[in-house]
Amino acid sequence: MTVGPVIQASGLDLTFQTGDGPVHALKDVNLTVDKGDFVSFIGPSGCGKTTFLRCIAALETPTGGSLTVNGMTPDEARRARAYGYVFQAAGLYPWRTIARNIKLPLEIMGFTRAEQDKRVDRVLKLVDLEGFGGKYPWQLSGGMQQRASIARALAFDADLLLMDEPFGALDEIVRDHLNEQLLALWASTGKTIAFVTHSIPEAVYLSTKIVVMSPRPGRITDVIESPLPRERPLDIRDTPEFIQIAHRVREGLRAGHSYD
Predict the structure, then answer these.
(1) Of 138, 157, 176, at which residue does a domain stop?
(2) Is residue 228 included in any domain, yes or no?
(3) Measuring CA to CA, which residue among 197, 177, 147, 166 is closest to residue 40?
(4) Which of 1, 97, 103, 194 has its C-alpha lying 20 to 30 A from 239's C-alpha?
């Protein structure tokens, strides 16, 4: 059982060494993510949003400060399978059915065939893809493929879901629908979600906490605790409260650029 923050970053720095000299990707990042939070990271391209997510997932190693996931180092959390990761592209194997794509991490982790089948059935229902397990990725729309990718990340039931701009390539109508479905999924599972986006309306609509980041070196310029209710119909985006939060995010992005 998790005690304390799910994610805790303190004075986090990351500098990449390149042939053209050092690249400062993250600088003095301080952030606490609590259990059940839905945290969106927003900022211009190259501000370190994805890099920070990759640090949480132990795919990058910080060069300064500290970072814990469920009280463990990111590498310990990775080995404990503390999170699922959803990438920008669905990344489904075309020769595997949707069910067998979802089963892949379960196969690697040594779950029995019966347990694999049970988990696949459960997550397909969660993402509203019941009946599509026997289809191949090419038989599904882009939005359905991303839902299958989310199902795969949910299959081993980690409490933390890391999502790197999963809806960025989808059209606005599909994106709105998946935003609604993701909120419903979050409400029904109680997961903690860390979500990278370039979209201000998406960040405000989805999140309990919005983290605004500056251009490189990536710094946090604002952390906005959302006052919106947890149940959010799409038309909440027309309310004064929503518009006010979106304005604060926009101002934060603008202020971040002023450091250049």
Answers:
(1) 157
(2) yes
(3) 197
(4) 194
Specify whether 10 is located in the same domain as 76: yes
Same domain, 109 and 61: no
What stretches in the chain show pLDDT beneath 70?
A: 1-3, 256-260
CATH number at residue 225: 3.40.50.300
Residues 209, 249, single domain; the answer is yes
Model pLDDT, residue 257: 62
Domain extent at residue 129:
92-157
Return the structure tokens found at 253.
Answer: 């992005």
> First vs last Cα of the chain: how many Å apart?
43
The pLDDT assigned to 3 comes to 59
Residue 103's pLDDT is 94
pLDDT of residue 9: 97
- 71: which 2 tokens? 């009280």
| Amino acid (one-letter) located at 161 | L
